[in-house]
Design brief:
The protein is of the alpha+beta class. It has ten helices and 19 strands. The chain is globular.
Length: about 400
Amino acid sequence: METRATTEQDLDAFVATFHAALGRFPETPSDDGGGVWYSALEMDRNLLAVADGRPVGTAGAYSFELTLPGETLVPAAGVTAVGVLPSHRRRGALTAMMRHQLTDLRARGEFLAVLLASEAVIYRRFGYGPSTTTQRLTVRRHQAAFAAPRGDAEAGAGSIEVLRRADCGELLEEIYDRYRRAQPGALSRPHRWWTARAGKPPIAPTPRYVAVHRDADGVPDGYASYSLGEPETTLTVDETITTDDAVYSSLARFVLNHDLVTQVVFKHSPPGHPLRWQLADLRAAQVTDETDWLWVRLLDVPRALTARGWFNDGELVLDVGDPFFGEQNRYLLSVRDGKAECSPTDREPDLSLDVSDLGSVYLGGIAPSTLVRAGHIRAHHPGAAALADTLFRGERAPHCLHWF
């Protein structure tokens, strides 16, 4: 069995092999070749596992930007389309592709890889750690009255316009791009995704209505993509895009006041969002599904740690194991005035951890102390976990809702 890079001529074989690995059949693209998720594939970044002259496994990567704490934008490889034919599993094809891919990413000078895990037990052994979560929030409409605010919350000034997805693609692209630049954990949606209509709604051409919010000056600053049905009286919101809580509340009020609806499902609600607390009946909104979303893999620890922004000063010695590459390195992380330096050291460690655990805490959404309590990270003295919590905490919780 061998692993090799793909070319444009391998597209059909790559798509067919990946779908066969899942036991599914590919969707049919539109006449212009778009409208399906695989129309955004970058064939110069993909791999095929080949046995006896035919493809038996696939692994791909997209070229994204990831927003780090401090609103820093960095390149990130978005690993995708990983699969092995049922007839060739348990033969080392997946491990060989992962090793080939991660080695190639390092050779390209990339220091971060991300993915969405189909199964949570697969990717830790390759050094990935879950770094963001997302939740599905279901609100019963007859109980969805908002409470009168008692604090400093302000109603979103502006207006909402209802558009068809087919008529506002460029507007959605513009709003999303401004949002992802300010939201830690968010990924870019390259222009080719929008033009190819690749992915999930509202990128895909699936019919959707879009509630577009404009501020008092008429500038678009948020949207909610939604559809009605399945079941018939359920309104499902694909995504709500804004970094402004007041705008989010305005869009939520809009969909919750929709006629002929018994419940509203927000498919990607950021954990900890205040919407539930804004309702007069706290129980009107139920978390019906909470799951890991973005998994992070650090390929160059010093570059990754010095790339993100920091919000507290301090020093931490990290003893980082990377079993997949057979590496064990100790680093001194020194943070001053929002910037970090990270260099090799022989000082005694404050924390010992796997590179997958460092990926989990990297974006600031998972507290190191949580992983200490879980037995993943070893704290070498009583104050180490609290210090790590203080250092790694971001200015706002990371959230990713892009599907790839």
